[in-house]
């Protein structure tokens, strides 16, 4: 994707967290998680909950109880342009969570919010159904209409890197 689509400042909450799946988008007022609870009424197994929380770092949009619900619904993970809490408990639950920040302060639950449509996370536009990928390096968004092209290009890059690795193994020190 020519280095586009990488969400700035969004990181995994623990090493080894990995996610991949279609985006289920929520736009909420900073520090308010009422929309996240509403999203759980319609999100489907494997979808990744992607939340524009305005980049707020002062109130956690999720914690242990929300992630327990996400685990029961078998969603693909959670990406927050906002904060989370209960990091140790979240890691134990196994649902991959990526966020801008961590704080012990809980959320507001008054709204407003919007479910679906285009949002922004880490400066990247995200539409419902775009592909979301996350690992130890961060989060990338692939527009739905570009997924096939990006997969083909990624496979070509992987093959080229494998060839370079093999060539590196054959290098002989000089001198």
From TrEMBL:
<feature type="binding site">
    <location>
        <position position="85"/>
    </location>
    <ligand>
        <name>substrate</name>
    </ligand>
</feature>
<feature type="binding site">
    <location>
        <begin position="63"/>
        <end position="66"/>
    </location>
    <ligand>
        <name>substrate</name>
    </ligand>
</feature>
<dbReference type="Pfam" id="PF03737">
    <property type="entry name" value="RraA-like"/>
</dbReference>
<feature type="binding site">
    <location>
        <position position="86"/>
    </location>
    <ligand>
        <name>Mg(2+)</name>
    </ligand>
</feature>
<comment type="function">
    <text>Catalyzes the aldol cleavage of 4-hydroxy-4-methyl-2-oxoglutarate (HMG) into 2 molecules of pyruvate. Also contains a secondary oxaloacetate (OAA) decarboxylase activity due to the common pyruvate enolate transition state formed following C-C bond cleavage in the retro-aldol and decarboxylation reactions.</text>
</comment>
<keyword id="KW-0808">Transferase</keyword>
<dbReference type="GO" id="GO:0008168">
    <property type="term" value="F:methyltransferase activity"/>
</dbReference>
<keyword id="KW-0460">Magnesium</keyword>
<dbReference type="InterPro" id="IPR005493">
    <property type="entry name" value="RraA/RraA-like"/>
</dbReference>
<keyword id="KW-0479">Metal-binding</keyword>
<dbReference type="GO" id="GO:0046872">
    <property type="term" value="F:metal ion binding"/>
</dbReference>
<comment type="similarity">
    <text>Belongs to the class II aldolase/RraA-like family.</text>
</comment>
<dbReference type="GO" id="GO:0032259">
    <property type="term" value="P:methylation"/>
</dbReference>
<protein>
    <recommendedName>
        <fullName>Putative 4-hydroxy-4-methyl-2-oxoglutarate aldolase</fullName>
        <ecNumber>4.1.1.112</ecNumber>
        <ecNumber>4.1.3.17</ecNumber>
    </recommendedName>
</protein>
<dbReference type="GO" id="GO:0008948">
    <property type="term" value="F:oxaloacetate decarboxylase activity"/>
</dbReference>
<dbReference type="GO" id="GO:0047443">
    <property type="term" value="F:4-hydroxy-4-methyl-2-oxoglutarate aldolase activity"/>
</dbReference>
<keyword id="KW-0489">Methyltransferase</keyword>
<comment type="subunit">
    <text>Homotrimer.</text>
</comment>
<dbReference type="InterPro" id="IPR036704">
    <property type="entry name" value="RraA/RraA-like_sf"/>
</dbReference>
